[in-house]
Amino acid sequence: MSMYFIGIDISKYKHDCCIISAANQKVVSKVIIKNNKAGFNELLTIIHSLANPADIRIGFESTAHYALNLELFLENAHHSFMEVNPVLIKEYKKSTTLRRTKTDSVDCESIARWLMTVEYKPHSKGFYHSYSLKSLTRLRDRLIRQRSFYLVKITNVLDHTFPEFKPFFNERLSKTAIYLLENYGSAEKMAHMNSASYDKLRCASRGKFSIHQFLRLKELAANTVGVNNSIFDIELNSLLTLYNSLCKEIKTLEAEITKLIEEVHPHYMSIPGIGPISAAVIYAEYGDISNFSNPGQMLAFAGIEPGINDSGTESHGGRMVKHGSSQLRYVLLNACLPLIRFDITFATYYAKKRAEGKKHRVAITHVAKKLIRVIYALERQDVDFNVQKLR
After folding, report:
1. What does the alpha-carbon distance between residue 254 and residue 266 come to, in Å, rounded to a whole number?
2. DSSP-assigned letter for residue 263
3. Are 284 and 133 in contact (CB under 8 A)?
4. For a tag on the chain, would you pick the N or C end, based on fewer CB atoms within 10 A?
């Protein structure tokens, strides 16, 4: 039975397919399938007419969400496929032809021919979780940024109405501060709070808000230099509604993200400091870790490795390159903060880097590199984190 290579060029409404036989390396057929059920079934009929599924190699460029439906369809039909980096195809085309052509018909053939030259690495079965988590974690990230934007706008209103309010809460709009703004809003109303107000406030803050703080806030409210204007009240109410609605949406997303990552439960979730949300971002951005042949590739993917300036006259390490996923980099660096507090190995490593004269941020970057090496080892060895085995 001959082997066949199928290159698919993905686009929004149709996909170009090129089938090449491994026996003589000739094009068997070129077809265009529509991005709908009839088109997908047509592709399946063609595949079934060729050979045993084990002798078929399917590849397409990783082009965001347009490929997802086809990927799910192929997975449900028990066919493997390989996602191809578009940059590699571009380089391959350059090396095989001098013509600068960009047509879907040429592209799908280039993908099929490229597949013949590399080791076939089928997409992992858990890619649906990876895709779902990438969508949800990135949406959560956008909502958190929006929520921060509304907090800034709330601060801007307070600068007019009650400028002493935020400094009283150490420049943070805590849950207690938001409760006060929702229930009283203006300095005038806060100045007239009574003992019943204090009882509710104490409950809302779980007993943290003392009577001394309450009296001090009332005094600040009575003597504020802010202006009392109904327009600002309307603005504040509107901003608080938007802020609260975002908080609610973020909570809903986090519950869904936690549920999905618990189903996958990667080994690095056992590392202290990596909670479900951090694990979800790592899983969503890295995908299947077996796609990386060493931890260095994972470092490069997160943009944590330093740039190197190496010429005939000088050679030195540069600053962090910061390519790759900024969300992934942020999560990895943040996960290191509890690690250096609660894990002896990472704490010792951080202290060693500090003793070498490195600043906190540089030392944390080194800890993040160690963390990536640990994540890589855990997934490759299929084991959970064990502090005794860590050197």
Report:
1. 17
2. H
3. yes
4. C
- What pTM does this model have? 0.71
Q: How far is CA 100 from the centre of its chain?
A: 35
The sign of the dihedral angle between the CA atoms of 169, 172, 175, 179 is positive
Report the distance separating Cα 247 and Cα 135, nearest Å.
Answer: 18
How many Å is the maximal CA-CA distance in the chain?
89
DSSP state of 317: E
Please answer whether residues 108 and 9 qualify as being in contact, where contact means their C-beta atoms are separated by less than 8 angstroms: yes
Beta strands 315-320 and 82-84 are: unpaired
Rg over CA atoms, the chain: 28
162-171, 227-236, 274-283, 310-319: the lowest-pLDDT one: 310-319
Question: What is the distance between the terminal CA atoms of the chain, rounded to a whole angstrom?
Answer: 50
User: Exposure of 168 by Cβ count < 10 A (0-12 exposed, 13-18 middle, 19+ buried)?
Assistant: middle
Average pLDDT over residues 50-61: 81
pLDDT band of residue 125 (cuts 50, 70, 90) is: low
318-to-48, 296, 307, 309, 365 alpha-carbon distances in Å: 53, 16, 5, 6, 13
